[in-house]
Design goal:
2 domains, Aspartate Aminotransferase, domain 1, Aspartate Aminotransferase, domain 2, five-stranded mixed sheet, 16 strands, alpha/beta, binds ligand F0G, globular, three-stranded antiparallel sheet
Amino acid sequence: MEPYKIKVVEPLAFTTRAEREAALAGAGYNLFNVPAALITIDLLTDSGTSAMSDRQWSGMMLGDESYAGSRNYFHLEHMVRRITGYRHVIPTHQGRVAENLLFSTVVKPGDRVPNNIHFDTTRANVEHNLGVAVDCVVDDAYDVTSPHPFKGDMDIAKLDRVLAEVGRERLPLVMLTITNNSGGGQPVSLASARAASAWCRRHGIPLFFDACRFAENAWLCKTRDPDCAGMSVEQIARAFFDLGDGCTMSAKKDGLVNIGGFIATNDDALATRLSNMLILIEGFTTYGGLAGRDLEAIAIGLEEVLDERYLEHRVGQVRRFGERLQAAGVPIVLPVGGHAVFLDARRFLPHVPQPHFPAQALTCALYLEAGIRGVEIGGLMFGVPDEATGAWSWPELELVRLAVPRRVYTDAHLDYVVEACARLLARRDTIHGLRIVSRAPVLPHFTARLAPLGGPA
Ligand code: F0G
């Protein structure tokens, strides 16, 4: 059961099918353009959508809004040091600013940045600085039926290949995303982090964690890896951070807050360069684009996220959601990861070819069916048209992510989603693909507009 009780409630929005059809057409078949007031169950993201606790809300009243040296900054610094062991704590208003700061400081044109799989903003920030983002995850990550318990693991042979190709000078850092969001929210094992760390140390390359979901990763290690079973989540998380030189963090995930992030590192010279840039783009080093009250909420959230009762329920709720979908015959990525269930659109809609955006088509169909919002992680997000020929290169996976916000929905809400998916599966032949109407060159999925290729889904 939920290890908390509910003190404040927010009514759900209910709509008619006709209202949803109009909303979707007006939104160019892109759920990012649909107002949240027209969504019944919003599984677009687990980012910034958490319910805060009574302690966090009361902490916000203790916000010290001093421009420099706010006491809430020192509370945050204390918590981040306690969890990561990293000396320098640089607040940012969200994760991608941490990425922007880091990559604009260390990446030179032509550099390679390996990661298990880059999240979309991570990839875009590397590429914006004219670097090349290289995914080096184990092959199992691309096999949506493989039972591998740690599909976020790094493939060291792939790191070797990148190094052999460009040489050490072109590798400013290696990143490891815990959990591996774009590959299905899959965890990284401590053994893999150790191997990646040893590799980085051998070649004198810094290792950074993309730590958005570090606590969920630690919980999955505790429950899937016998070597971690006797450790606390905090010990496991620390064992990871001890292997690296720093981390970027979107506190909108495992910080259990609605806004915030940070970079933490032990590298003094890097911290100075990052702090100078921070002042230029975010604000002074003790607030980094946040209010004092936000810093306080993150500090408290980082403590609450280590509560193992909370994590057991959180990760268990997502797993049960996946199990119920599976029992209904809905094809999903297995094993279920930490923060989301990923529908496998290739198997759900085998009749829709990849150039017709099957995962986006399924996302739209789910909204039309029941007012549920998920997000496409497939050809719309990662497909790239060749400028000269117009031919597209396509990603390996066509997924619909149903991300579960933290402490927001009950199992009954998720049952509603399972039922809607089962109904769609039964009439999947009626779901048609889509074509692009307009598309931005960077992070296209946020603003792209599409049109249906057949009748309404
Ligand atoms: N890294 C990972 C692994 C993420 O999942 C995200 C955000 C970021 C970095 C960027 O953080 O949003 O605070 O700027 N993921 C959200 C999602 C948006 O829906 O998965 P941000």
